[in-house]
Automatic annotation (TrEMBL):
It holds the Pfam family Radical_SAM. It comes from the Eukaryota. This is S-adenosylmethionine-dependent nucleotide dehydratase RSAD2. Belongs to the radical SAM superfamily. RSAD2 family. The gene is rsad2. It is a peripheral membrane protein. GO terms for cellular component: endoplasmic reticulum membrane; lipid droplet; mitochondrion. Coiled coil: none annotated.
Amino acid sequence: MKMFLSSVMKSPKPLVHLFIQTLRCMLVSLFSALVYWTAGACKDASASPSDAKAHANKVQNVTTPTSVNYHFTRKCNYKCGFCFHTAKTSFVLPLEEAKRGLRLLMEAGMEKINFSGGEPFLHDKGEFLGKLVQFCKEDLQLPSVSIVSNGSMIKEKWFQKYGDFLDILAISCDSFDEETNQLIGRTQGRKSHLDNLYKIRNWCQDYKVAFKINSVINTFNIDEDMTEHINQLNPVRWKVFQCLLIDGENAGEEALREAERFVISDQQFEEFLDRHSGVSCLVPESNEKMRNSYLILDEYMRFLDCREGRKDPSKSILDVGVQQAILFSGFDEKMFLMRGGKYTWSKADMKLDW
Ligand SMILES: C[S@@+](CC[C@H](N)C(=O)[O-])C[C@H]1O[C@@H](n2cnc3c(N)ncnc32)[C@H](O)[C@@H]1O
Ligand code: SF4
């Protein structure tokens, strides 16, 4: 007790933060109950609880989790030096709990789920991921199910088993020069990242999955011209991110990565974009656009709020429900729409030339 008191005296910030969060939760619950009472239960005895809930949502301006990124594992077989979602825990939810959370999200309005990590194909050799992908498409009937992966662990068998249930597969590739990938850490040993990329591109074609590429622009690849390779690979979307720093992940004392040496300026990022202005599928994401425009769920199904430059976790949706947790997500819906977060995301609607 004495030790606890002295540590609180030294650094009272976490306690104050907890106090404010609890107070906000209590006020929101009180407000919900009040709105429910005035909107439905009191005025019109025939109003259903779901009508009242929808009304309460509107009044409270609660965010709908239309598009969610579930980072169910933090473990990875690569060592990208700039990585902003690092192996701080090795926790993964039991499959049935993950499914329960995904159902809660669907009931709260989720239309698109993206599975990320860590490396999502690592846990249970991709079976955990496959089962969730199948569940989201078959049971929850989500319009869009996607994955972002480094591509190194994917086998053709996975496509045979689960390809039908997947809309989009994004593979991250930051350079078309093997040496640069080695320097970045975007590799496992001396294996070729690029051979995998091309192999997966072909499997996507064979198994009718839309293929996407993600690239992080940093000091190691800033002078590259990737036009030829991207045109050859012909992804449905090429996401180009400006390398982002997150305290506690890839910057600051407690971080597992030190990404400062990868950071580029806004002007350098603009120059890279100008060089690639002829690539029609390019979707740029500067630090400003990226920081708060994603709904991120961590391995415990807690929303991560990046507004303070860190990833501050909410309570788990499994404990408090989606609506309570999402209040602490820091999500900027306007920026999400501005960066083109809502697009044709069902493969059935893409009219692809398979
Ligand atoms: C954290 S990774 C997890 C999925 C998978 N391991 C991969 O690399 O694709 C998700 C995406 O974030 C990108 N990313 C990682 N660190 C980043 C950073 N510091 N700034 C911007 N994007 C980053 C990755 O390149 C990848 O496209
Ligand atoms: S960005 Fe690199 S290190 Fe981070 S999770 Fe993806 S592959 Fe692993």
